Amino acid sequence: MPVQDLLGAAGQLARAQREAGLDIARSVGACRATVSLVRLLDGCGEAPLGQLAGSLRVDLSVASRQVSQAVQDGHVERSIGPDDRRIRTVRLTPAGQDLAARLHQESADRAAVTFADWTDDELTAAATTLRRLADALTPRTTGHPARTIDES
């Protein structure tokens, strides 16, 4: 059945992506959660904790623990919102910016090898299909989508 094949391929991709992410994290000396957080903040500059949780697709308590670990490791810092003291904003430290640069380089180096024999048209088609698949698989359980940071 084609739908089952698609779901099986999606699972296979998810496992391969987790393994690749773990390997990249190890190569730069960071945990996978920190890598995800640093990449996200590198793309947006800074964000409230709740928005980070939505973008990472984790519970607020999980995001808070990840941020606490990244703070302890010196990669991010928290600040209190000037307009609303209940809001905690998170941003990269200089060490976090350095980690982001190393992640970019490591990812670019690996992608150059991995996709060396793919054409630009094949890469574009794959990206389009993966975005469509991710959108289709995103749960729509409430009438209110999670507020997330644009990750494109």
UniProtKB/TrEMBL annotation:
BP GO terms, sorted: response to stress
An example molecular function term from Gene Ontology annotations: DNA-binding transcription factor activity
Pfam family membership, one: MarR
InterPro entries noted in UniProt: HTH_MarR-typ, MarR/SlyA-like, WH-like_DNA-bd_sf, WH_DNA-bd_sf
Signal peptide: none
Top-level division of the source organism's lineage: Bacteria
Ranges for domain HTH marR-type: 3-135
PANTHER family, A to Z: MARR-FAMILY TRANSCRIPTIONAL REGULATOR, TRANSCRIPTIONAL REGULATOR, MARR FAMILY
UniProt name for this protein: HTH marR-type domain-containing protein
Organism the protein comes from: Cellulomonas soli
Upper classification of the organism: Bacteria, Bacillati, Actinomycetota, Actinomycetes, Micrococcales
